[in-house]
Each structure stands twice: as C-alpha cells, then as structure tokens.
Design a protein that fits this description.
heterodimer; A: alpha/beta; TIM Barrel; about 50% helix; B: alpha/beta; 7-stranded mixed beta sheet; 4-stranded antiparallel beta sheet; 16 helices; about 20% strand; globular
Chain lengths: ~270, ~400
C-alpha cells in the first residue's frame, strides 16, 4: 500500500481529516526547508506538498510566485528538491510527500530520470499544474511502475466527460481547486464547493482534497467538514516570507499556525 | 520518453499544411499544457472557432473589416533600388507596416475580437511586448465597445512609452507586470492569471502563434491572409512564385502568416529570422530555435531558452517584439521537418538594416522586421538577378525611433 493510501485509510479509521500544508522547496533556504517539513509534521500535518520552484509559475498568485523567486534566487534546483526529500526521509518514513510544480523542469530532465530520482528519495505523488490528463499519458506510464501517484486537479470549470475521465485516471486523491483563479485568491464559497464535491463523489471513491483560498482555521474547518483533506499554501507561505530572516521565530510561527488548523479540523462535529 | 529535437524524415509528409492534429499537436509540439481551470474554456473556444471559422457570415465580416478597417490588401512592393544596390535577387516587401495600427498584429485581433463578440464576452485581455499587439487589441476593443486590459512587462513599458500612451488613448488599461524579467513572457503569465480568474466574461486575445491549442492555429489562420495575398500578388506581378520567403520570428505570427500558404510550394525556400541579440555565442539573445531545447511553457511544447534545470532564462534583443524565450509550436515542427530554416541576426546587423532600408527605400521598418531585412541583405547578393525574395515587412518603425536614438546616444 502506498504511503498516501495508508495515510488516508488511517485518517478515515480515526474519523479525521487530512491537513496538507504546501511550502516551496528552498524558501527561505534549503536547510530550513527540511526543518520546516518536520515542524509541519510535528504540528499536525498529514501530507506535505513540496513546491518545485519554477521561473514562470502561471497558476500561482503573488505569494507563491515570490516564494518561487526566493527559492530560485537561493540557487534551488530540481536535484536540491530531491535531496530535501531524501534528508526528510532520513527521519520520517511515513508522511507522504507530494511534489507540486510545473511541467518544464520534468521535461528537461526527462521523464525516466525525473521519476527514478523521485522514487529513489521517497516521493509519493506529483501534482503538475500545467499537465492536464489529456497530455499526461506518457508521464503516467513512467510513474505507474514506480508507484508514484499522479494527482489531478478538478476545478469549477471541469464538467461532463472531462470530469468522468479525470476520475478514471486519477490515483492517490483528487485535488479540487475551490475557485476560478490563482493560488492565494480570496473568494472561496463553501456551499458551491460542497455541491461540486458531491458531484465528484458520485463518480469516484478516491479521497477529495480542497485547496486555493484556505486562509485560516475557520475556513479550514468549514472546508474540512465537506472534504477529506484541506490544502493550505499561500497563507502558510506568507508567514514564511514574513519570518524568513529569523529561523526560530519562523518555526514557532509555522508550528502555531499549523496547530491551529489541526485543532480546527479535529473539532469538526 | 519523448523523442525530442530530432530531425524528422519529411519525405513521408504529404502536406505541410496538415498540422495540427485534432488535439492541437504539431508533431511533438503544441498541445494544451494549462491549469485545469482553463481546459473547459479552451474547449469552448475551440468549438466556437471551429464553428465560426467555417461560417460564411463570420468570414464575410472578417474580410470586410480587413478590407475597410485594416486597409487590406497590403501592397507587395518591389524594392528596386535596394535590390539593385545588393546586386542580386529582386526583393519584394510585403507591406504589413501600412496596415491600420502599423503592423500585421491587427489581422489577428480583428479576428479574435469578432469571435469574442459572437461568444458574448465583453471584456478582453491581451499581453504585449513591443506594444503592437496591445495597441491592436486596444484598437479593436474601442471599435467593438469592449473593455480592454493589456498586460505589459515593466521593462517594456519603459522601452515603448509611445505605444503605452496610444493604448491609453484608445481606452485600454495598461497593467505593468513587475514579476520575473518584466518582459513579454511575464506579461503572458499575468494575462493567463487574469484569464483563469475572470474566465466567465473574459476573452484572452493572444498576440502570437503560441499558447495552448487552439491559439497557435487560430492566430495563424487569421494572419495567413498575409501569405495568401503575397502569393497571388507575386504571381500577378512576376508570373511566378518567389524563390525565398524571409520573416522575423519572435513568437512567429507574422512569419507563419506569410509562410503557411507557401508550405506545399516546395520550390520556395523559407527563412525565419530570430534575434541573436549580442550574438548567439554570447548567450545574450532571443533565438530558441537556433540555440534552445524543446520544453513546455505558456500552454504549449516548443523550443525554449532555458537552463539545465528547465528554468526559463532571460532573453536579450533590441527589438521588444522578438524578446521572447519561446516560439510558436508550428515553427518548432517546421524546423524539425526541415521545411523552414531558422537563422538569426544580431542587434547591430538589425540596426544597420533599419538605417539602410530607411535611406534607400524611404521605408522605416520596425526593429523586428529589420531582422528579416538584415538577413535578406545577406542572401540576396548570392542569388541570381532574376531570383525573387519576399520579405515580410511586418511593422513600421516609428515606434522604435526612441530605441534607435538611445542606442546612438541621441536624446530626442
């Protein structure tokens, strides 16, 4: 059983929701990223989404764009991202790690090489923002034998046949983008999200995560009530940007923010 | 594994006009690499385009506007004095600089704005580099009474102050993009972010033959009027087809517009000219077809300028319209098949050509087009006197006089 599947099974047995924080690899620095991953887990994260920085993050709002710029400015490259996961795995064998990023760094490395390296260091899933299922067959074929899940996004504009097809090819879990917009947007409508999740649930038994626009414990709780997992990105990265200069303060802030989300999710009636 | 960057055996290609396939692929290039939220709207756009591009009423309205609003057909002008001085081939200039707004860009924006109107979208957005596409978009938005937002890199806003003011006069809102290298690629990113946020009421008018399917095809089709006219004009004026075509390539919309109707005329050689900036060997250039690798950016797979880890690198070219790290996917395919040749000229060569054409023919070319002019001046002397070259003079150079003056240390 994959780490992702095991994670969701365990949560389900305990009637709990998955908390999935996103941070960008190399922001504020390579060393701190590994430490932050452990802080996230200690504070209650179930799965970690690790952003692979890209020069042209088309689907991201300003907060994650700047995180990507900081990481690249620090010289972070794809091999560094793999090293971060490897180092994290040295102390943590169970928490799933998902790489989230864009297609071009994978294209340039070559699918085989990228996937072999990812599998070798203990990556569990990939979310590739600009790789819809229509273009994904070749990479999927390389991922499958390595047991790495390709996690697809569903958005408010995903309808009809395309929704069916995504549900068929997806593995791990499905990531519902709660709104039309970029990461860090501000108009999440819980009722509309709930209606769409009902529709998706009628087509798949995979766990459903929700991301984009989850800013605080209150929204996390509301979304957790209707989903299986909550993804928090920009709100967390904003804190990293604010306290990046002071690593102790940074870890304390990140820990208390994630703890507040954990508590909110654990207190869903 | 993708078999990229390989020469394709083109003896089995029946028609070079057969691309793309149903999913928008030109061989391994093109496609639709976008976030999930845009997939539905792109399908909707593709369906609308497939429907209206075959609709006689749409075609009639498009052609009417090209004739009466844009001023088509543009002349095919025999540059006799310049040809004589070079001492070789006869050079014909396709005068896209004489179009309304001063460049070929208007052909595409008229087409896309008509489509936007029929799809019921009242808000249009556009990205721009040199400002020509921004001006062309603001122009059609004014004419059709649509709201228009133009994204432009902060660096380009500095370089192209006149076009920024033109857009504002036309009623457009110009948004300065401060992210990344603050040029065209970043403007495109930002326009995509706007589109994904406002997708219900917004039509994104992409200005070049790049982006997700169906843009490379649609923008090509709207610009192919250039090549269709040039082909007929050449037959009318000389009784035969040209020996060579030359056009500059940034994203590649003026080039594909000229090239496409000639693709199956195998006796016609085709040259796309990229911006070599300070020189290909310096790394400071904008020539992905000459010195880049295949990758994925802005919704399509194509040749890109990138580092070893796939990060897009900054481009350098005196012409803002060529300052782009990618290129339309059909050009990538035409390169691999060998049907077209992609070459480059430096900033200095382009500036020299800018001055020469201005002085010899009384035509001030855009710095983009000056790259095509410069390459023509290299090949024409080697050709027979009865040989014919058609150069796409894709835009006029008025917008560039500040850049040229600054380069020569002159303050206007």
């Amino acid at each position: 059983m994959s780490r992702i599947e095991a994670c969701f099974n365990a949560l389900k047995n305990n009637n709990k929701k998955a908390l999935i924080p996103f941070i960008t690899a190399g922001d504020p620095s390579l060393n701190l990223t590994v430490e932050l991953m452990h802080v996230l887990v200690d504070a209650g994260a179930d799965i970690i989404e690790l952003g692979v920085p890209f020069s042209d993050p088309m689907a991201d709002g300003p907060v994650i764009q700047r995180a990507s710029e900081r990481a690249l400015h620090n010289g972070t490259n794809t091999d560094d991202v793999f090293n971060i996961v490897k180092e994290f795995r040295g102390k943590n064998e169970s928490t799933p790690v998902i790489l989230m990023g864009y297609m071009n760094p994978i294209e340039v490395m070559g699918y085989e090489q990228f996937v072999e390296k990812a599998a070798g260091v203990g990556v569990d899933g990939l979310i590739i923002v600009d790789l819809p299922p229509e273009e994904a067959a070749e990479l999927s074929a390389v991922l499958k034998p390595h047991g790495i899940d390709q996690i697809f996004l569903i958005s408010p504009t995903t309808r009809g046949e395309r929704l069916n097809r995504i549900c068929e090819v997806a593995s791990g879990f499905l990531y519902y983008v709660s709104l039309k917009g970029v990461t860090g947007s501000n108009q999440l409508d819980v009722k509309a999200v709930g209606d769409k999740l009902d529709e998706i649930r009628s087509k798949t038994s995979l766990p459903l995560g929700v991301g984009f626009g989850i800013k605080d414990a209150k929204i996390a709780q509301a979304v957790g009530t209707i989903s299986d997992a909550v993804v928090v990105g920009s709100a967390l990265v904003e804190r990293i940007a604010e306290h990046g200069e002071n690593s102790n303060k940074l870890k304390a802030e990140v820990s208390s923010f994630i703890s507040s989300l954990r508590t909110a999710l654990d207190n869903i009636e | 594994m993708l078999e990229t960057n390989k020469k394709i055996d083109n003896s089995e290609i029946e028609s070079f006009k057969s691309m793309p396939d149903k999913r928008g692929h030109f061989g391994i290039y093109g496609g639709r690499f976008v976030s999930e939220t845009l997939m539905g709207p792109l399908e909707e756009l593709e369906q609308a385009y497939n429907k209206y591009s075959k609709d006689p009423d749409f075609i009639a309205e498009f052609e009417h506007d090209l004739k009466h609003y844009v001023g088509r057909p543009s002349p095919l002008y025999h540059a006799k004095r310049w040809s004589e001085q070079l001492g070789g081939a006869q050079i014909y200039l396709k005068r896209e600089d004489l179009n309304h707004t001063g460049a070929h860009k208007i052909n595409n924006t008229v087409g896309q704005a008509l489509l936007a109107k029929l799809m019921g979208k009242r808000r249009i957005i556009a990205e721009t580099g040199a400002g020509q596409h921004g001006v062309a978009s603001a122009t059609v938005a004014a004419r059709y009474g649509m709201e228009c937002i133009v994204y432009m890199g902060a660096e380009d806003i500095q370089r192209q102050a006149m076009n920024v003011f033109r857009m504002k006069l036309l009623g457009a809102t110009v948004v300065a993009v401060e992210a990344g290298s603050r040029t065209l690629k970043d403007a495109l990113n930002e326009a995509m972010r706007d589109w994904v946020t406002n997708v219900d009421d917004t039509f994104y008018i992409i200005g070049t033959v790049a982006g997700p399917h169906p843009y490379p095809t649609m923008v090509r089709d709207f610009n192919a009027v250039v090549g269709r006219e040039a082909r007929q004009q050449c037959l009318d004026q000389t009784g035969r087809l040209p020996d060579s075509l030359v056009a500059c390539v940034g994203g590649g919309s003026n080039a594909i517009g000229l090239f496409h109707p000639f693709l199956d005329d195998k006796e016609v050689s085709i040259f796309g000219v990229e911006g070599a900036g300070d020189g290909i060997e310096t790394g400071r250039h904008a020539a992905p077809l000459n010195a880049g690798k295949p990758g994925v950016l802005h919704g399509n797979r194509t040749y890109l300028m990138e580092d070893n880890y796939g990060q897009i690198i900054e481009t350098h070219c005196i012409s803002a319209g060529l300052d782009y790290p990618g290129v339309g996917p059909e050009h990538a395919w035409l390169k691999d098949t060998g049907r077209a040749n992609y070459v480059s000229v430096t900033d200095i060569e382009a500036l020299d050509a800018f001055h020469k054409l201005t002085r010899i023919e009384g035509i001030i070319p855009a710095l983009e087009s000056s790259h095509a002019v410069a390459y023509t001046a290299k090949i024409a002397p080697e050709m027979d006197k009865d040989a014919i070259i058609i150069v796409n003079l894709s835009g006029r150079g008025d917008k560039d006089i500040h850049t040229v003056a600054a380069h020569e240390g002159i303050t206007l």
